[in-house]
Amino acid sequence: MASFFLENQNLIYIVILSILLGIEVISNVPAILHTPLMSGANAIHGVVIIGAIIVMGHAQSDDYLALILGFLAVLLGTLNVVGGFVVTNRMLQMFKKKKG
Questions:
Q1: Fewest CB atoms less than 10 Å from the CB: which of 19, 22, 72, 96?
Q2: Is 20 within a domain?
Q3: pTM
Q4: How many structural domains compose the chain?
């Protein structure tokens, strides 16, 4: 386990710095912009679905862990994309003129 951390030390630093930077950026977003940004980010998660499908396609047929994790990534990514579109559609409905 320690050898993994030593071999990937630079990558681990990048992940930690990315997390800290993400927290700093998100905490400075005004509340009025948070929902539109999050719905757009959720819709962009189609990239996650494509990546999961590619990983599942390259997995060995007897590697059940990779197949299960890939399936879960596709499922959760799809839920995230659909949720992003639903929230965006709901926000856009608020700006339409009401009939009557």
A1: 96
A2: yes
A3: 0.58
A4: 1
